[in-house]
Amino acid sequence: MAGGITVFVCSLVLLCSLTQGQDCPPTINQTLTGKRIGSKPVWNVIIKNTCDCTDLDVTLSAPNFQTLIPVDPSILSKDNTGHWLVNDGKPIYKGNNVTFTYAWDRVDFSVFDYRVACS
Ligand SMILES: *[C@@H]1O[C@H](CO)[C@@H](O)[C@H](O)[C@H]1NC(C)=O
Ligand SMILES: *[C@@H]1O[C@H](CO)[C@@H](O)[C@H](O)[C@H]1NC(C)=O
After folding, report:
1. How far is the CA of 97 from the centre of ligand 2 (A)?
2. 37 domain-assigned
């Protein structure tokens, strides 16, 4: 009886720590739209939270990022470390995404940092 309770409590603790420590960055997916601005191709970028938890304070590394189409700074803005803050650092909830379009040679976006919040 006591043994059964111990196992039950432990599995609860394990479940919680797995969820808390979940390493689950948003995915970044970009595709060519087929359009061009001047000599530069136009890309559509989708940053998607495929986790069971919420991602927030997401920053990207985007070497040499430039664009001929302005990107809404509430979607993507350069921070004071040279990385790019997504969605003003606000939560991207489970299954949601943030998208933007840019016109330049392909930029190699990657997730630099993020936080996970599980409810
Ligand atoms: C990007 O999208 C394609 C098509 O929807 C999908 O097959 C691929 O897994 C996605 N890649 C990432 C990194 O999410
Ligand atoms: C991104 O979010 C929009 C609006 O919620 C949705 O219509 C679209 O299907 C989503 N795209 C992906 C790739 O999840």
Report:
1. 6
2. yes
The answer to whether residue 52 sits within a structural domain is yes
Structure token pair of residue 34:
């087929």
* Beta carbon of 27 within 6 Å of any ligand 1 atom: yes
Look up the CATH number of the domain holding residue 56. Answer: 2.60.40
CB 59 within 8 A of CB 86: yes
CA distances from 80 to 59, 77, 84, 85 (A): 11, 10, 9, 10
CA nearest ligand 1 atom 11, residue:
29
Q: pTM for the whole thing?
A: 0.80
Instruction: Identify the domain containing residue 84 by its residue range.
Output: 25-117
Domain count within the chain = 1
- pLDDT tens-digit profile, the chain (119 residues): 455 544 444 344 444 444 455 689 999 999 999 999 999 999 999 999 999 999 999 999 999 999 999 999 999 999 999 999 999 999 999 999 999 999 999 999 999 999 999 97
